[in-house]
Amino acid sequence: MTDKPARAPSLTVEDRRAMLVDAVTPLLTQFGAAVTTKQIAERAGIAEGTIFRAFGSKEELIQAAVDRQLDPEPFRQKLRAVDIALPLDERVRSIVVLMRERFTTVFTLMAALGLLGKPHPHDPRREFTEILALALAPDLARLNFSGERSAQIIRMVSLVASMPLMHLGAAFDDDEITALILYGIAGLPGPSDNSSR
């Protein structure tokens, strides 16, 4: 008599759903909504039919993955965990890293699912950056970044400050945005802070 391989312990419905969401999320960034149940099953290491025992449809699974990525609580927990004993520059950098990871993940997923619209055939950002860099050219020696990099910073901060959903309370006015771009939130960096730029 041969020994049968031990069967993996069965998962609860919630555990199975969580496992499938884990499996589908990277596939969504790669294939968007065109991901197949076969690809999902292969990634999860399960039979295709198992997907439908946990979710009523592929669309329901995709929505669960989107809902998890949009859930702000895990992100809030990461922000709360930033060590307040760190020096200011390290604390701010930690916050920036977390914010960028969050926004990159969410926007990559939304773009893959076609929720952000189709990309423009001619990317206008390059031309905007060049125009702004030319406007800054007379003062390049005063800048902590190259003209092109400074132009990107101006564009980025101005764009985000113009999005009503991005600010709580009063919107930033033009003078506040200008001061933020010119002086940052902690004053001008010293000469040693400029070396890596």
TrEMBL record:
PANTHER family: HTH-TYPE TRANSCRIPTIONAL REGULATOR PKSA (PTHR30055:SF226), HTH-TYPE TRANSCRIPTIONAL REGULATOR RUTR (PTHR30055)
InterPro entries assigned to the protein according to its UniProt record, in alphabetical order: Homeodomain-like_sf, HTH-type_TetR-like_transc_reg, HTH_TetR
Record feature DNA-binding region, as residue ranges: 36-55
Protein name (Swiss-Prot/TrEMBL): TetR/AcrR family transcriptional regulator
GO molecular function: DNA-binding transcription factor activity; transcription cis-regulatory region binding
Domain HTH tetR-type: 14-73
Residue ranges that the Swiss-Prot or TrEMBL entry lists as coiled coil: none
Gene3D superfamilies the UniProt entry points to: Tetracycline Repressor, domain 2
Keyword list, A-Z: DNA-binding
